[in-house]
Amino acid sequence: MSYQVLARKYRPQNFSEVIGQEHVTRTLKNAIEQSRTAHGYIFSGHRGIGKTTVARILAMALNCRSSNKPVTEPCGVCESCTEIRAGNSVDVIEIDAATNRGIDEIRELREAARYRPARDRFKIYILDEAHQITDAAFNALLKTLEEPPGHVVFMLATTQPEDIPQTIRSRCQHFSFRAVRFEEILGQLKNLAGRENIQADEDALALLAEAGDGSMRDALSILDQAIASSGGRLTADAVRQLVGAAPSGVLEEVMQAVAQSSSETVLRLVDKLINEGHSPTHFARQMVRFLRNTVVAKIAGSESSMLQISSDERNRVMRVAELFSEEDLARHLQIMLRTHAELGYRQEQRFHLELGLLKMAHAQRLLPIEQLLSESALPASGAPRPAGKPSVVPDARRSESASPNRASISPFAADSARKSGSKTQLSTEDGPSATPRVASSAAVVMGAAAPAVVAQPVPEVLTSREEDVQSLPLAPLDQLRSAVLNALAGQRMQASMLEAGAWAIEGNELVIKVAASATVIDMSLGADAKRLIIAAASGVLGRPAKLKVIPGGTAQAAPERASSNGGGRSRAEQDPIVRRMKEKFGAEIRTIIDYKERR
Known about the structure:
The protein is an alpha/beta fold. The chain contains 27 helices and twelve strands.
């Protein structure tokens, strides 16, 4: 007798042997037990997951002769069961709809359906790849499928249920099959290896299960090849060579080189793989899967059920996940997805693969726009920075290199602190002349449009009672007022309204009581103005701040601001925005229009 492949030799013969489709088999068994079987079924899903197999098992259960009625589990030994299993039953007709898709074939089927079965209870038609039947043929089958004779059951198996007309789907019970989980495929491979007396490493079986990609039939087909190519024992290296997969360690080495922005190492690894005969397309697909698993491990942890990989692979992706942020991994995955898509229709596949990997290495040098803006807007104290050369010194080092009593607050660091919910930390040096400063890791200012504000540490008020809340000392409060009003330099009406109000700090909240109604406040202070105020206040406080503008205040003379000394040219030269423009673009003041003096 000729050799029978594993996928056919160990094909399930009853519902209990079907793996990964419990939601389908349980429903069908209950329907048979309750005598509620339908006249039409649609089985849809991924390739090699048991659609046709379940259709045959259901046909055996309906026609099994071990009982005078349909049974939930076919006996497998009666004439009906053996003939259906062999594919030569007179009353169970399997039709390949890919080649019998026209209206003439469906007319013949419709005519034959009128006659009763030759021996069994039901005449069953199993139409494989049913989505390839033409629309005209489906229309010819429509009436028969809606009101068939009592002895006829139709079963349509398809991988593309959306191509079946809705009029057909509405007349059938639709069962959507799921891809078989990695653990279930791995368990079945271990079972079959034991029954076939095949010695196999667990890593090798894990690679086979992963290569199956949710299809039990694909995994068994590759297992057949691996057994034929092995020298008596299945090893991970032999399976990798068989399926053309690059070693997982190489994937980790590539990502380590990307983390170090080492373009030379990336090119050397690609050259090594190409010289060993690996396909660029297959390697790109491996990188996509590896990066997807790394992203999942970064977000959900290495023990997440969304990772359909072996334990060694889990450890590997977790090590790589620690090298990157979530945003970097998402960017790398997007680059590799685009590269893999391009390789399908490009001739020089190696060049495009190298280009995609180099893009990943170069992406490590990218800086968020918020950080670039903060570097430009907040120069360190001391010598002025040359125009056109923004500083690239990180916020922590810039704060330390500033004068002892000044600290620059980065909007980028503020946004990170806001997302992580971190609080301001104060570090105090020993000694009587020690000056408290804001810890660089907790420097907070929210929004890239924050003005250049010099931060001073403010002691946090730790109290559990509202009456114990303390206000800021006078000097920091004046500095806070000046910073907020400078931020609103372009919005004169809002600045005037707030400048005449009563300012106070309650915990992390800036409270301003103004002599205006609530309606006027809502109309005057838009989202942009509030964002600027919160950014400036956060920079002075050294932690995320909130804003509360309330009515009920009385108009009072605005305190003298530091920038109001002298004439119009003097105030303009002291304005922080003007200073930044002069420093960055080499601008000069030519004309001054002082609207205060005109009034």
